[in-house]
Structure to design on (595 residues):
Protein backbone atom coordinates (compact mmCIF):
# COMPACT_ATOMS: atom_id res chain seq x y z
CA UNK A 1 0.00 0.00 0.00
CA UNK A 2 2.73 2.45 1.00
CA UNK A 3 4.52 2.22 -2.32
CA UNK A 4 1.64 3.40 -4.46
CA UNK A 5 0.17 6.01 -2.21
CA UNK A 6 -1.11 8.93 -4.22
CA UNK A 7 1.10 11.37 -2.35
CA UNK A 8 4.85 11.61 -1.79
CA UNK A 9 6.32 10.28 1.44
CA UNK A 10 6.83 13.84 2.58
CA UNK A 11 3.14 14.64 2.17
CA UNK A 12 2.25 11.45 3.94
CA UNK A 13 4.61 12.19 6.80
CA UNK A 14 3.14 15.66 7.33
CA UNK A 15 -0.39 14.35 6.98
CA UNK A 16 0.16 11.57 9.49
CA UNK A 17 2.18 13.66 11.91
CA UNK A 18 1.28 17.27 11.33
CA UNK A 19 3.62 19.77 12.96
CA UNK A 20 2.62 22.87 14.92
CA UNK A 21 -1.10 22.25 15.00
CA UNK A 22 -2.79 24.62 17.42
CA UNK A 23 -3.96 22.75 20.47
CA UNK A 24 -7.05 24.31 21.93
CA UNK A 25 -5.78 24.09 25.48
CA UNK A 26 -2.18 25.18 25.04
CA UNK A 27 -2.92 28.89 25.41
CA UNK A 28 -0.86 29.97 22.41
CA UNK A 29 -0.86 33.77 22.24
CA UNK A 30 -0.26 34.85 18.66
CA UNK A 31 1.08 38.23 17.57
CA UNK A 32 -0.67 37.90 14.25
CA UNK A 33 -3.45 35.75 12.95
CA UNK A 34 -4.95 35.12 9.53
CA UNK A 35 -7.74 32.97 8.22
CA UNK A 36 -8.58 32.33 4.57
CA UNK A 37 -10.75 30.03 2.49
CA UNK A 38 -14.20 28.73 2.94
CA UNK A 39 -15.43 25.38 4.20
CA UNK A 40 -18.00 25.38 1.43
CA UNK A 41 -15.20 25.05 -1.08
CA UNK A 42 -13.64 22.32 1.01
CA UNK A 43 -10.59 24.26 2.21
CA UNK A 44 -10.04 26.67 5.05
CA UNK A 45 -6.78 27.60 6.77
CA UNK A 46 -5.82 29.58 9.81
CA UNK A 47 -2.29 30.65 10.61
CA UNK A 48 -1.02 32.18 13.85
CA UNK A 49 2.46 33.63 14.21
CA UNK A 50 4.67 34.80 17.05
CA UNK A 51 7.10 37.53 16.04
CA UNK A 52 10.35 38.84 17.49
CA UNK A 53 12.65 41.38 15.81
CA UNK A 54 10.81 41.05 12.52
CA UNK A 55 11.27 37.30 12.59
CA UNK A 56 8.70 34.57 12.90
CA UNK A 57 9.80 32.63 15.96
CA UNK A 58 6.85 30.32 16.32
CA UNK A 59 3.56 29.51 14.67
CA UNK A 60 0.42 27.43 14.95
CA UNK A 61 -2.25 26.52 12.41
CA UNK A 62 -5.52 24.81 11.79
CA UNK A 63 -6.83 23.52 8.51
CA UNK A 64 -10.08 22.11 7.26
CA UNK A 65 -9.32 20.18 4.12
CA UNK A 66 -7.94 17.11 2.47
CA UNK A 67 -4.61 15.40 3.03
CA UNK A 68 -2.72 17.73 0.75
CA UNK A 69 -4.22 20.82 2.39
CA UNK A 70 -3.23 19.52 5.81
CA UNK A 71 0.25 18.54 4.68
CA UNK A 72 0.94 21.81 2.91
CA UNK A 73 -0.04 23.87 5.95
CA UNK A 74 2.11 21.65 8.14
CA UNK A 75 5.14 21.94 5.89
CA UNK A 76 4.63 25.68 5.62
CA UNK A 77 4.61 25.99 9.39
CA UNK A 78 8.03 24.36 9.48
CA UNK A 79 9.40 26.52 6.69
CA UNK A 80 8.55 29.84 8.25
CA UNK A 81 10.02 29.35 11.70
CA UNK A 82 13.04 31.61 11.90
CA UNK A 83 12.14 33.37 8.68
CA UNK A 84 11.99 37.14 8.40
CA UNK A 85 8.56 38.63 7.92
CA UNK A 86 9.70 40.12 4.67
CA UNK A 87 10.80 36.79 3.26
CA UNK A 88 7.79 34.95 4.62
CA UNK A 89 5.50 37.44 2.98
CA UNK A 90 6.91 36.54 -0.40
CA UNK A 91 6.50 32.78 -0.09
CA UNK A 92 4.57 31.28 -2.99
CA UNK A 93 2.43 28.18 -3.30
CA UNK A 94 5.07 26.80 -5.62
CA UNK A 95 7.77 26.97 -2.96
CA UNK A 96 5.49 25.21 -0.50
CA UNK A 97 4.77 22.53 -3.03
CA UNK A 98 8.45 22.04 -3.77
CA UNK A 99 8.99 21.33 -0.10
CA UNK A 100 6.41 18.57 -0.31
CA UNK A 101 8.10 16.92 -3.24
CA UNK A 102 5.13 17.15 -5.49
CA UNK A 103 1.39 17.02 -5.44
CA UNK A 104 -0.95 15.27 -7.83
CA UNK A 105 -2.07 17.71 -10.49
CA UNK A 106 -5.63 17.97 -9.23
CA UNK A 107 -4.47 18.66 -5.69
CA UNK A 108 -2.49 21.76 -6.44
CA UNK A 109 -5.36 24.04 -5.57
CA UNK A 110 -5.21 22.63 -2.04
CA UNK A 111 -1.85 24.19 -1.40
CA UNK A 112 -2.57 27.69 -2.59
CA UNK A 113 -4.22 28.83 0.60
CA UNK A 114 -1.29 28.44 2.98
CA UNK A 115 0.68 31.40 1.73
CA UNK A 116 -2.45 33.52 1.74
CA UNK A 117 -3.21 32.63 5.35
CA UNK A 118 0.36 33.47 6.24
CA UNK A 119 0.23 36.86 4.55
CA UNK A 120 -3.01 37.59 6.33
CA UNK A 121 -1.31 36.75 9.64
CA UNK A 122 1.68 38.97 8.89
CA UNK A 123 -0.54 41.88 7.91
CA UNK A 124 -2.51 41.33 11.07
CA UNK A 125 0.73 41.56 13.06
CA UNK A 126 1.71 44.84 11.37
CA UNK A 127 -1.72 46.24 11.94
CA UNK A 128 -1.78 45.34 15.61
CA UNK A 129 1.63 46.82 16.21
CA UNK A 130 1.00 50.14 14.62
CA UNK A 131 3.08 49.43 11.55
CA UNK A 132 0.24 50.16 9.21
CA UNK A 133 2.68 51.52 6.68
CA UNK A 134 4.10 48.03 6.30
CA UNK A 135 0.78 46.36 5.68
CA UNK A 136 0.99 45.09 2.15
CA UNK A 137 -2.40 44.98 0.67
CA UNK A 138 -2.95 41.92 -1.42
CA UNK A 139 -2.86 43.79 -4.65
CA UNK A 140 -3.47 40.51 -6.36
CA UNK A 141 -7.03 40.24 -7.44
CA UNK A 142 -8.77 36.90 -7.58
CA UNK A 143 -10.05 36.42 -11.08
CA UNK A 144 -11.25 32.85 -10.89
CA UNK A 145 -13.19 32.39 -7.70
CA UNK A 146 -13.65 28.69 -8.15
CA UNK A 147 -10.01 27.79 -8.58
CA UNK A 148 -8.65 30.70 -6.61
CA UNK A 149 -6.54 32.09 -9.42
CA UNK A 150 -5.32 35.68 -9.18
CA UNK A 151 -4.18 38.12 -11.82
CA UNK A 152 -0.64 37.57 -10.51
CA UNK A 153 -0.88 33.90 -11.30
CA UNK A 154 -2.15 34.69 -14.76
CA UNK A 155 0.91 36.89 -15.21
CA UNK A 156 3.17 34.06 -14.01
CA UNK A 157 1.54 31.65 -16.42
CA UNK A 158 2.09 34.07 -19.26
CA UNK A 159 5.73 34.46 -18.28
CA UNK A 160 6.03 30.70 -18.25
CA UNK A 161 4.71 30.43 -21.74
CA UNK A 162 0.91 30.43 -21.76
CA UNK A 163 -0.36 32.33 -24.78
CA UNK A 164 -3.88 31.10 -25.32
CA UNK A 165 -6.83 30.77 -22.96
CA UNK A 166 -6.51 27.01 -23.28
CA UNK A 167 -2.84 27.08 -22.25
CA UNK A 168 -3.72 29.37 -19.40
CA UNK A 169 -6.30 26.87 -18.23
CA UNK A 170 -3.81 24.04 -18.52
CA UNK A 171 -1.49 25.85 -16.14
CA UNK A 172 -3.86 27.45 -13.69
CA UNK A 173 -7.05 25.40 -14.00
CA UNK A 174 -8.79 28.75 -14.17
CA UNK A 175 -12.27 28.71 -15.64
CA UNK A 176 -12.67 24.96 -15.23
CA UNK A 177 -15.52 25.00 -12.75
CA UNK A 178 -18.29 27.52 -13.35
CA UNK A 179 -16.57 29.29 -16.21
CA UNK A 180 -17.78 32.72 -15.17
CA UNK A 181 -14.28 34.15 -15.15
CA UNK A 182 -13.59 33.42 -18.80
CA UNK A 183 -14.17 36.88 -20.25
CA UNK A 184 -12.21 38.70 -17.61
CA UNK A 185 -9.39 36.18 -17.73
CA UNK A 186 -9.04 36.57 -21.47
CA UNK A 187 -8.74 40.34 -21.16
CA UNK A 188 -6.02 40.00 -18.53
CA UNK A 189 -4.23 37.34 -20.52
CA UNK A 190 -4.05 39.68 -23.50
CA UNK A 191 -2.89 42.52 -21.30
CA UNK A 192 0.09 40.57 -19.96
CA UNK A 193 1.03 39.12 -23.32
CA UNK A 194 1.10 42.65 -24.65
CA UNK A 195 2.99 43.95 -21.65
CA UNK A 196 5.73 41.36 -21.73
CA UNK A 197 6.01 40.19 -25.27
CA UNK A 198 4.74 42.75 -27.66
CA UNK B 1 -5.79 -7.23 14.89
CA UNK B 2 -2.41 -6.57 13.31
CA UNK B 3 -2.28 -4.88 9.94
CA UNK B 4 -5.80 -5.78 8.88
CA UNK B 5 -7.10 -5.41 5.36
CA UNK B 6 -10.72 -4.49 5.63
CA UNK B 7 -12.67 -3.82 2.49
CA UNK B 8 -15.75 -1.67 3.02
CA UNK B 9 -16.17 -0.28 -0.48
CA UNK B 10 -18.42 -2.94 -1.97
CA UNK B 11 -20.58 -0.40 -3.79
CA UNK B 12 -17.53 0.48 -5.87
CA UNK B 13 -16.78 -3.12 -6.71
CA UNK B 14 -16.79 -6.54 -5.09
CA UNK B 15 -14.28 -9.37 -4.91
CA UNK B 16 -15.05 -12.42 -7.03
CA UNK B 17 -17.25 -15.00 -5.37
CA UNK B 18 -15.16 -18.16 -4.84
CA UNK B 19 -17.68 -20.11 -6.93
CA UNK B 20 -17.40 -17.56 -9.72
CA UNK B 21 -13.64 -17.87 -9.58
CA UNK B 22 -13.95 -21.63 -9.91
CA UNK B 23 -16.35 -21.36 -12.82
CA UNK B 24 -13.99 -18.95 -14.55
CA UNK B 25 -10.99 -21.20 -14.10
CA UNK B 26 -12.93 -24.09 -15.61
CA UNK B 27 -14.16 -21.99 -18.49
CA UNK B 28 -10.69 -20.66 -19.19
CA UNK B 29 -10.09 -23.63 -21.48
CA UNK B 30 -12.94 -22.65 -23.72
CA UNK B 31 -11.79 -20.27 -26.41
CA UNK B 32 -14.12 -20.84 -29.31
CA UNK B 33 -16.05 -17.99 -30.86
CA UNK B 34 -19.70 -18.56 -30.00
CA UNK B 35 -20.59 -17.38 -33.48
CA UNK B 36 -18.63 -20.22 -35.10
CA UNK B 37 -20.56 -23.27 -36.19
CA UNK B 38 -17.87 -25.83 -35.46
CA UNK B 39 -17.38 -27.74 -32.26
CA UNK B 40 -15.23 -25.13 -30.55
CA UNK B 41 -17.76 -22.47 -31.27
CA UNK B 42 -20.65 -24.62 -30.14
CA UNK B 43 -18.90 -25.35 -26.89
CA UNK B 44 -18.66 -21.63 -26.13
CA UNK B 45 -22.20 -21.05 -27.30
CA UNK B 46 -23.53 -23.67 -24.91
CA UNK B 47 -21.90 -21.98 -21.94
CA UNK B 48 -23.11 -18.62 -23.10
CA UNK B 49 -26.67 -19.87 -23.47
CA UNK B 50 -26.64 -21.35 -20.01
CA UNK B 51 -25.39 -18.08 -18.54
CA UNK B 52 -28.07 -16.16 -20.38
CA UNK B 53 -30.66 -18.52 -18.98
CA UNK B 54 -29.38 -17.89 -15.45
CA UNK B 55 -29.29 -14.12 -15.80
CA UNK B 56 -32.71 -13.87 -17.38
CA UNK B 57 -34.41 -16.13 -14.89
CA UNK B 58 -32.74 -14.24 -12.03
CA UNK B 59 -34.59 -11.07 -13.00
CA UNK B 60 -37.70 -12.80 -14.29
CA UNK B 61 -37.02 -12.07 -17.95
CA UNK B 62 -37.29 -14.23 -21.06
CA UNK B 63 -34.07 -15.56 -22.48
CA UNK B 64 -34.07 -13.32 -25.52
CA UNK B 65 -34.79 -10.21 -23.48
CA UNK B 66 -31.27 -10.12 -22.06
CA UNK B 67 -28.51 -8.38 -24.02
CA UNK B 68 -24.96 -8.82 -22.74
CA UNK B 69 -22.90 -5.64 -22.82
CA UNK B 70 -19.49 -4.47 -21.67
CA UNK B 71 -20.62 -2.73 -18.48
CA UNK B 72 -23.48 -1.10 -16.67
CA UNK B 73 -22.33 2.20 -18.12
CA UNK B 74 -22.60 0.82 -21.63
CA UNK B 75 -26.11 -0.45 -20.98
CA UNK B 76 -27.20 2.92 -19.63
CA UNK B 77 -25.55 4.78 -22.47
CA UNK B 78 -27.25 2.49 -24.98
CA UNK B 79 -30.72 3.21 -23.66
CA UNK B 80 -30.33 6.96 -23.39
CA UNK B 81 -28.45 7.37 -26.63
CA UNK B 82 -31.30 5.81 -28.59
CA UNK B 83 -33.03 9.15 -28.28
CA UNK B 84 -30.32 10.89 -30.19
CA UNK B 85 -30.00 8.48 -33.09
CA UNK B 86 -29.99 10.72 -36.16
CA UNK B 87 -30.88 7.98 -38.59
CA UNK B 88 -34.13 8.25 -40.48
CA UNK B 89 -34.34 4.51 -40.33
CA UNK B 90 -33.87 4.23 -36.60
CA UNK B 91 -36.65 2.12 -35.26
CA UNK B 92 -36.44 3.19 -31.61
CA UNK B 93 -38.63 5.76 -29.92
CA UNK B 94 -40.90 6.50 -32.83
CA UNK B 95 -42.64 9.24 -30.90
CA UNK B 96 -42.26 12.62 -32.55
CA UNK B 97 -41.27 14.51 -29.44
CA UNK B 98 -38.02 13.60 -27.80
CA UNK B 99 -38.00 14.37 -24.17
CA UNK B 100 -36.59 12.52 -21.21
CA UNK B 101 -36.99 12.60 -17.48
CA UNK B 102 -34.20 11.52 -15.20
CA UNK B 103 -33.02 12.55 -11.73
CA UNK B 104 -30.39 14.67 -10.07
CA UNK B 105 -28.90 11.67 -8.30
CA UNK B 106 -28.21 9.30 -11.18
CA UNK B 107 -24.85 7.66 -11.65
CA UNK B 108 -22.60 9.78 -13.88
CA UNK B 109 -23.07 7.34 -16.79
CA UNK B 110 -26.72 8.38 -16.90
CA UNK B 111 -26.30 11.91 -15.61
CA UNK B 112 -23.54 12.87 -18.03
CA UNK B 113 -25.22 11.14 -20.97
CA UNK B 114 -28.42 13.03 -20.21
CA UNK B 115 -26.53 16.32 -20.15
CA UNK B 116 -24.93 15.41 -23.44
CA UNK B 117 -28.36 14.68 -24.93
CA UNK B 118 -29.53 18.06 -23.72
CA UNK B 119 -26.67 19.67 -25.61
CA UNK B 120 -27.87 17.81 -28.67
CA UNK B 121 -31.25 19.45 -28.45
CA UNK B 122 -33.20 16.88 -26.48
CA UNK B 123 -35.30 18.21 -23.67
CA UNK B 124 -34.18 16.74 -20.34
CA UNK B 125 -35.78 17.20 -16.95
CA UNK B 126 -33.71 16.32 -13.90
CA UNK B 127 -36.02 15.48 -11.02
CA UNK B 128 -35.31 16.83 -7.55
CA UNK B 129 -35.06 14.54 -4.56
CA UNK B 130 -35.93 15.11 -0.93
CA UNK B 131 -33.50 15.04 1.98
CA UNK B 132 -33.50 11.25 1.93
CA UNK B 133 -32.90 10.98 -1.78
CA UNK B 134 -36.45 10.08 -2.76
CA UNK B 135 -37.85 11.38 -6.04
CA UNK B 136 -40.21 14.33 -5.93
CA UNK B 137 -43.36 12.60 -7.12
CA UNK B 138 -45.41 15.76 -7.59
CA UNK B 139 -42.80 17.24 -9.87
CA UNK B 140 -42.58 13.93 -11.72
CA UNK B 141 -46.32 13.77 -12.31
CA UNK B 142 -46.41 17.36 -13.41
CA UNK B 143 -43.76 16.85 -16.07
CA UNK B 144 -45.40 13.64 -17.28
CA UNK B 145 -48.70 15.43 -17.48
CA UNK B 146 -47.26 18.07 -19.79
CA UNK B 147 -46.80 15.20 -22.22
CA UNK B 148 -44.32 14.28 -24.89
CA UNK B 149 -41.95 12.39 -22.61
CA UNK B 150 -40.51 9.49 -24.55
CA UNK B 151 -38.27 8.01 -21.88
CA UNK B 152 -37.92 8.04 -18.11
CA UNK B 153 -34.68 6.83 -16.56
CA UNK B 154 -34.57 6.47 -12.79
CA UNK B 155 -32.12 4.38 -10.82
CA UNK B 156 -33.47 1.66 -8.54
CA UNK B 157 -30.99 2.17 -5.71
CA UNK B 158 -28.46 4.93 -5.34
CA UNK B 159 -24.79 3.98 -5.22
CA UNK B 160 -23.75 6.71 -2.79
CA UNK B 161 -26.54 6.88 -0.24
CA UNK B 162 -28.32 3.59 -0.91
CA UNK B 163 -31.80 5.10 -1.21
CA UNK B 164 -34.24 2.79 -2.99
CA UNK B 165 -36.98 4.23 -5.23
CA UNK B 166 -40.43 2.81 -5.74
CA UNK B 167 -39.73 1.77 -9.32
CA UNK B 168 -42.97 -0.12 -9.79
CA UNK B 169 -45.03 2.95 -9.02
CA UNK B 170 -42.79 5.33 -10.98
CA UNK B 171 -42.89 3.01 -13.97
CA UNK B 172 -46.66 2.71 -13.76
CA UNK B 173 -46.97 6.50 -13.89
CA UNK B 174 -44.66 6.71 -16.89
CA UNK B 175 -46.61 4.11 -18.81
CA UNK B 176 -49.87 5.83 -18.00
CA UNK B 177 -48.53 8.85 -19.84
CA UNK B 178 -47.20 6.85 -22.74
CA UNK B 179 -43.49 6.94 -22.04
CA UNK B 180 -41.02 4.12 -21.79
CA UNK B 181 -39.26 3.40 -18.52
CA UNK B 182 -35.63 2.48 -17.89
CA UNK B 183 -34.05 1.76 -14.55
CA UNK B 184 -30.37 1.60 -13.76
CA UNK B 185 -30.47 -1.28 -11.28
CA UNK B 186 -26.72 -1.82 -11.05
CA UNK B 187 -26.68 -1.31 -7.28
CA UNK B 188 -29.96 -3.10 -6.72
CA UNK B 189 -29.83 -6.36 -8.66
CA UNK B 190 -28.56 -9.11 -6.41
CA UNK B 191 -29.16 -7.05 -3.28
CA UNK B 192 -32.91 -6.66 -3.28
CA UNK B 193 -35.44 -8.83 -5.16
CA UNK B 194 -35.87 -7.54 -8.71
CA UNK B 195 -38.44 -8.93 -11.09
CA UNK B 196 -38.86 -7.16 -14.39
CA UNK B 197 -42.39 -8.43 -14.83
CA UNK B 198 -43.45 -7.18 -11.46
CA UNK B 199 -41.79 -3.81 -12.02
CA UNK B 200 -43.01 -3.79 -15.62
CA UNK B 201 -39.99 -1.76 -16.78
CA UNK B 202 -39.01 -1.58 -20.44
CA UNK B 203 -35.26 -1.50 -19.88
CA UNK B 204 -33.14 -2.50 -16.91
CA UNK B 205 -29.39 -2.33 -16.41
CA UNK B 206 -27.28 -4.67 -14.31
CA UNK B 207 -23.60 -5.23 -13.85
CA UNK B 208 -21.38 -8.17 -12.91
CA UNK B 209 -18.71 -6.73 -10.66
CA UNK B 210 -21.10 -5.27 -8.11
CA UNK B 211 -22.36 -8.74 -7.25
CA UNK B 212 -19.13 -10.72 -6.96
CA UNK B 213 -18.86 -11.35 -10.69
CA UNK B 214 -16.13 -10.21 -13.07
CA UNK B 215 -15.56 -6.64 -14.21
CA UNK B 216 -16.28 -5.64 -17.77
CA UNK B 217 -19.58 -7.41 -18.09
CA UNK B 218 -23.09 -6.08 -17.79
CA UNK B 219 -26.50 -6.86 -19.11
CA UNK B 220 -29.38 -4.86 -20.45
CA UNK B 221 -32.92 -6.14 -20.19
CA UNK B 222 -35.02 -5.07 -23.15
CA UNK B 223 -38.68 -5.92 -22.91
CA UNK B 224 -40.01 -7.98 -25.80
CA UNK B 225 -41.58 -5.83 -28.48
CA UNK B 226 -39.81 -2.63 -27.45
CA UNK B 227 -37.98 -1.14 -30.39
CA UNK B 228 -34.27 -0.88 -30.04
CA UNK B 229 -31.30 0.86 -31.55
CA UNK B 230 -27.86 -0.58 -30.80
CA UNK B 231 -25.01 1.57 -29.57
CA UNK B 232 -22.40 -0.76 -30.98
CA UNK B 233 -23.10 -1.91 -34.50
CA UNK B 234 -21.46 -4.31 -36.84
CA UNK B 235 -22.07 -7.92 -35.97
CA UNK B 236 -25.14 -10.00 -35.51
CA UNK B 237 -24.21 -10.92 -31.94
CA UNK B 238 -26.88 -10.56 -29.28
CA UNK B 239 -29.49 -10.65 -32.04
CA UNK B 240 -28.00 -7.54 -33.58
CA UNK B 241 -28.50 -5.52 -30.42
CA UNK B 242 -24.85 -5.36 -29.40
CA UNK B 243 -22.14 -6.11 -31.89
CA UNK B 244 -18.75 -7.42 -30.89
CA UNK B 245 -17.58 -10.91 -30.03
CA UNK B 246 -19.11 -11.82 -26.70
CA UNK B 247 -17.00 -11.65 -23.57
CA UNK B 248 -17.59 -15.35 -23.00
CA UNK B 249 -15.64 -15.59 -19.76
CA UNK B 250 -17.28 -12.48 -18.36
CA UNK B 251 -20.71 -13.79 -19.27
CA UNK B 252 -20.04 -17.15 -17.67
CA UNK B 253 -18.85 -15.32 -14.56
CA UNK B 254 -21.94 -13.16 -14.50
CA UNK B 255 -24.12 -16.25 -14.87
CA UNK B 256 -22.43 -17.89 -11.94
CA UNK B 257 -22.60 -14.68 -9.92
CA UNK B 258 -26.38 -14.39 -10.22
CA UNK B 259 -26.75 -18.09 -9.54
CA UNK B 260 -24.92 -17.60 -6.24
CA UNK B 261 -26.91 -14.48 -5.49
CA UNK B 262 -30.17 -16.35 -5.83
CA UNK B 263 -28.93 -18.71 -3.14
CA UNK B 264 -27.35 -16.20 -0.77
CA UNK B 265 -29.07 -12.90 -1.26
CA UNK B 266 -31.99 -13.14 1.13
CA UNK B 267 -29.92 -14.38 4.07
CA UNK B 268 -27.17 -11.93 3.38
CA UNK B 269 -29.50 -8.98 3.28
CA UNK B 270 -30.54 -9.73 6.83
CA UNK B 271 -26.97 -10.21 7.97
CA UNK B 272 -25.78 -6.98 6.36
CA UNK B 273 -28.63 -5.03 7.86
CA UNK B 274 -27.69 -6.30 11.28
CA UNK B 275 -24.04 -5.33 10.72
CA UNK B 276 -25.01 -1.93 9.38
CA UNK B 277 -27.14 -1.23 12.41
CA UNK B 278 -24.28 -2.25 14.65
CA UNK B 279 -22.04 0.16 12.78
CA UNK B 280 -24.59 2.93 12.73
CA UNK B 281 -25.32 2.76 16.43
CA UNK B 282 -21.64 2.44 17.22
CA UNK B 283 -20.85 5.62 15.31
CA UNK B 284 -23.77 7.42 16.86
CA UNK B 285 -22.63 6.47 20.32
CA UNK B 286 -18.95 7.30 20.01
CA UNK B 287 -18.78 10.27 17.64
CA UNK B 288 -20.67 13.53 18.15
CA UNK B 289 -21.91 15.89 15.42
CA UNK B 290 -22.59 13.42 12.67
CA UNK B 291 -25.35 13.08 10.14
CA UNK B 292 -26.49 9.97 8.30
CA UNK B 293 -27.29 10.55 4.65
CA UNK B 294 -29.85 8.61 2.65
CA UNK B 295 -33.17 7.07 3.55
CA UNK B 296 -33.42 5.56 7.05
CA UNK B 297 -35.50 2.58 5.88
CA UNK B 298 -35.72 2.39 2.09
CA UNK B 299 -32.01 1.89 1.80
CA UNK B 300 -29.66 -0.87 0.66
CA UNK B 301 -28.81 -3.10 3.58
CA UNK B 302 -25.07 -2.76 3.07
CA UNK B 303 -24.78 0.98 2.46
CA UNK B 304 -24.12 3.56 5.14
CA UNK B 305 -23.32 7.16 4.26
CA UNK B 306 -22.35 9.48 7.06
CA UNK B 307 -21.13 13.07 7.32
CA UNK B 308 -18.84 14.35 10.05
CA UNK B 309 -18.94 18.06 10.66
CA UNK B 310 -15.55 19.74 10.68
CA UNK B 311 -13.76 16.79 9.09
CA UNK B 312 -13.10 16.54 5.39
CA UNK B 313 -13.86 13.27 3.59
CA UNK B 314 -10.57 12.58 1.89
CA UNK B 315 -8.65 13.11 5.09
CA UNK B 316 -10.94 10.61 6.83
CA UNK B 317 -10.60 8.14 3.97
CA UNK B 318 -6.80 8.29 4.04
CA UNK B 319 -6.49 7.96 7.80
CA UNK B 320 -8.77 4.93 7.64
CA UNK B 321 -6.65 3.59 4.80
CA UNK B 322 -3.60 3.81 7.06
CA UNK B 323 -5.45 1.58 9.49
CA UNK B 324 -6.13 -0.90 6.72
CA UNK B 325 -9.75 0.08 6.18
CA UNK B 326 -11.01 0.95 2.71
CA UNK B 327 -14.04 3.18 2.34
CA UNK B 328 -15.09 5.82 -0.15
CA UNK B 329 -15.99 9.48 0.04
CA UNK B 330 -18.34 11.91 -1.60
CA UNK B 331 -15.79 14.64 -1.10
CA UNK B 332 -14.77 16.55 -4.15
CA UNK B 333 -11.14 16.54 -3.30
CA UNK B 334 -10.58 12.88 -3.86
CA UNK B 335 -12.14 12.92 -7.28
CA UNK B 336 -10.29 15.93 -8.56
CA UNK B 337 -13.21 18.20 -9.12
CA UNK B 338 -14.12 20.97 -6.76
CA UNK B 339 -17.76 20.14 -6.42
CA UNK B 340 -18.63 17.58 -3.82
CA UNK B 341 -20.95 14.69 -4.68
CA UNK B 342 -23.89 15.79 -6.83
CA UNK B 343 -26.00 13.19 -5.05
CA UNK B 344 -25.45 14.64 -1.59
CA UNK B 345 -25.92 18.18 -2.84
CA UNK B 346 -29.20 17.12 -4.45
CA UNK B 347 -30.43 15.89 -1.07
CA UNK B 348 -29.81 19.42 0.15
CA UNK B 349 -27.19 18.64 2.76
CA UNK B 350 -25.04 21.65 1.99
CA UNK B 351 -21.52 21.74 0.67
CA UNK B 352 -19.75 21.41 4.00
CA UNK B 353 -21.62 18.28 4.98
CA UNK B 354 -21.06 16.83 1.54
CA UNK B 355 -17.32 17.50 1.76
CA UNK B 356 -17.21 15.64 5.05
CA UNK B 357 -18.98 12.47 4.01
CA UNK B 358 -17.89 8.85 3.96
CA UNK B 359 -19.58 5.89 2.31
CA UNK B 360 -19.15 2.58 4.04
CA UNK B 361 -20.46 -0.29 1.94
CA UNK B 362 -20.54 -3.79 3.34
CA UNK B 363 -20.50 -7.04 1.43
CA UNK B 364 -20.67 -10.79 1.76
CA UNK B 365 -17.16 -10.97 3.18
CA UNK B 366 -17.70 -8.31 5.82
CA UNK B 367 -17.54 -9.66 9.35
CA UNK B 368 -18.71 -8.37 12.69
CA UNK B 369 -15.10 -8.32 13.85
CA UNK B 370 -14.25 -5.92 11.04
CA UNK B 371 -17.08 -3.60 12.00
CA UNK B 372 -15.93 -3.68 15.60
CA UNK B 373 -12.40 -2.82 14.54
CA UNK B 374 -13.67 0.09 12.48
CA UNK B 375 -15.66 1.33 15.45
CA UNK B 376 -12.54 1.13 17.55
CA UNK B 377 -10.36 3.33 15.31
CA UNK B 378 -13.03 5.64 13.94
CA UNK B 379 -13.51 8.00 16.91
CA UNK B 380 -9.76 8.55 17.26
CA UNK B 381 -9.42 9.41 13.60
CA UNK B 382 -12.32 11.84 13.56
CA UNK B 383 -11.03 13.40 16.72
CA UNK B 384 -7.56 13.88 15.28
CA UNK B 385 -8.91 15.55 12.15
CA UNK B 386 -11.28 17.74 14.09
CA UNK B 387 -8.51 18.84 16.40
CA UNK B 388 -6.68 20.41 13.51
CA UNK B 389 -9.78 21.71 11.80
CA UNK B 390 -10.75 25.36 11.58
CA UNK B 391 -14.30 24.24 11.19
CA UNK B 392 -14.92 22.30 14.34
CA UNK B 393 -15.61 23.59 17.80
CA UNK B 394 -16.02 20.95 20.43
CA UNK B 395 -19.29 21.40 22.14
CA UNK B 396 -18.35 19.53 25.28
CA UNK B 397 -15.72 22.12 26.21
S1 LIG C 1 -14.78 31.66 -11.46
FE1 LIG C 1 -13.37 30.61 -12.67
S2 LIG C 1 -14.30 28.73 -12.97
FE2 LIG C 1 -15.68 29.69 -11.65
Amino acid sequence: MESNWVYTDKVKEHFMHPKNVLKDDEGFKPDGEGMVGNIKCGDQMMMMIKVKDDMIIDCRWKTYGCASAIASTSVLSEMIKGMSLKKAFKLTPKEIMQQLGSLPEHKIHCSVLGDKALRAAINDYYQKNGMTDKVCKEEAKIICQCMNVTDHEIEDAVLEGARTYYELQERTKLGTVCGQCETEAKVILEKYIKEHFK
Amino acid sequence: MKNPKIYLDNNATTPLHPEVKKALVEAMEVFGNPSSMHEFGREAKTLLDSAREKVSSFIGANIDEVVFVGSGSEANNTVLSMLACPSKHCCSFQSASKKIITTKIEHPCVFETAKCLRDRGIEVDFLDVDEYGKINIEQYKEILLRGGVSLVSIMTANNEIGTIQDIKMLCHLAHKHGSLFHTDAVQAVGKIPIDVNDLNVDFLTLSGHKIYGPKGIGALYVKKGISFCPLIRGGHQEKGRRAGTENVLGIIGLGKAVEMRSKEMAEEEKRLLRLKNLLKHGIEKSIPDIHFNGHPDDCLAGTLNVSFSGAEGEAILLYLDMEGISVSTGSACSSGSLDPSHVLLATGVGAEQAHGSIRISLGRETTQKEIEYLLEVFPKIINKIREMSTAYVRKDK
In short: The radius of gyration of chain B is 22 Å. Chain B has 13 helices and 13 strands. The pocket of FE2/S2 (inorganic) cluster is lined by residues A 144-147, 174-181 (CB under 6 Å). Chain B touches chain A through 30 residues (CB under 8 Å).
